């Protein structure tokens, strides 16, 4: 469904992403993890058409979409959420979600009906008339998800939708994400909450300093020495192994 | 669903339409006609600046183009007033599209956009002042020839109804947009362009559509001004005064709201006239009153008069925030 080929993104002298590739198959939940500043959000922005990569290509459903602007990609079925939530602060929840729904429903009545259905699905059914600016952090994250979902995407890019939520809020939203996948939406998610990654993802990619250093099932990736080093520093994997050996 | 918001519009229109039956004073009727012309210009501004958050400081460019194109067609080519008006409105819309294309494609926003629109209006003013076919500094004087076909009326009431008809069109167009997909996308662009793009909104095309309709409405105001006063020159048609009027009325009445421009225009000019009556003939007292009202609105009622009314009505709920940061 989605193929990212050798993407490089340079900001002046800084290489945020250096030749990263990944593949997302239809119907899966794929995780993208990595330490802070690894380039995950940058890669998302490139996939969604918000940044032009310095090099590389983005292939969606078999066609090269690298030159397409963001709104065209949304029409093709790619929706993203923002790590730093971007609500339409002056609008209420219904109006926020309706902007997404209007992508596939030209009439106001239909767009509003769609918005209400989506709101109920992500647990915002009771907040439809609330101003977006009055929502809690958890509410705003749900709103990000709802707006993206209202565009009826084929591929949903979730950038840390669980960050900042408490454990019970995470427990509430994880089944929602799984249900979205079960209805046929492919998901690529950036996530730091490992418990959720283990729980949700069929496959995980690990990005560190702009490079894809590992790929596999969540379990495989967690014990990969490269990944441990990327998170804990050089030599950490060896030290851990040595410690385990001495305990044994 | 499609009826949403039309009741207050009907009410306002009905009150104004019945006014000539209650009041026969020419002073009052003149005042109302003038304010209705301002209202139209302001309705144009409100669509782009209020709903869309792209504050223009140069709506004179559209007002003036409407007035000049109509005047030139009538004076120089003897074309019928209604036809001339239609062509002039189209010309105003075209100028809007061109200014929009040049500035929005370059990514201009906020005060940069405001300054560029101001520059366009000033260039047009200077050109109109210098060129021969615009009558240069002497301006253009229309032939007095009263009659429906010439869009000239001796009766103030008749002109009031004509202007009110156009204002009604402006109100209905604004309300239709407010209830539509285009309106929702325009508001989304005002609130957060990035988020709008992510949801499939073609930001450039939405802005272009907005500035084109906006310019057309303001051009209508220019045409009406011409038909009413039968004279324009560059400082009237392309003058800063109308850019300011077009922007001030929605700010005072309620930015981005359908009834904002008309409420704002009547509030501002009502206060202006009242201050003239109270303070006598102190020159510029009405302008001072404008300034005072503007400061009060910005400081205490960023939602304008309508925002204030709404706040009083639902004291517990906060008023919708519009994009006042671009002001
Ligand atoms: N527009 C930009 N201009 C310059 N540098 C940028 C820009 N966007 C991102 N960067 C830099 O690129 C690097 C990667 O940033 P990015 O936001 O993609 O990381 P991330 O993996 O999403 O991190 P986090 O987990 O903290 O969200 C960082 O060093 C960041 O400072
Ligand atoms: Mg990030």
TrEMBL record, chain A:
It holds the Pfam family ABC_tran. Residues 2-234 form the ABC transporter domain. GO terms for biological process: D-alanine transmembrane transport; L-alanine transport; L-isoleucine import across plasma membrane; L-valine import across plasma membrane. The keyword Nucleus does not apply. GO terms for molecular function: ATP binding; ATP hydrolysis activity; L-isoleucine transmembrane transporter activity; L-phenylalanine transmembrane transporter activity; L-valine transmembrane transporter activity. One of its GO terms (cellular component) is plasma membrane. InterPro entries: AAA+_ATPase, ABC_AA/LPS_Transport, ABC_transporter-like_ATP-bd, BCA_ABC_TP_C, P-loop_NTPase. Keywords: ATP-binding, Nucleotide-binding, Transport. This is Amino acid/amide ABC transporter ATP-binding protein 1 (HAAT family). It comes from Chelatococcus asaccharovorans. The lineage of its organism: Bacteria, Pseudomonadati, Pseudomonadota, Alphaproteobacteria, Hyphomicrobiales.
TrEMBL record, chain B:
One of its GO terms (molecular function) is branched-chain amino acid transmembrane transporter activity. It is a multi-pass membrane protein. The chain crosses the membrane at residues 6-23, 57-75, 82-104, 158-178, 210-231, 238-267, 287-309. The keyword Membrane applies. The keyword Membrane applies. It is found in: Cell membrane. Keywords: Cell membrane, Membrane, Transmembrane, Transmembrane helix. It comes from the Bacteria. One of its GO terms (cellular component) is plasma membrane. It holds the Pfam family BPD_transp_2. Its main location: membrane. This is Amino acid/amide ABC transporter membrane protein 2 (HAAT family). The lineage of its organism: Bacteria, Pseudomonadati, Pseudomonadota, Alphaproteobacteria, Hyphomicrobiales.
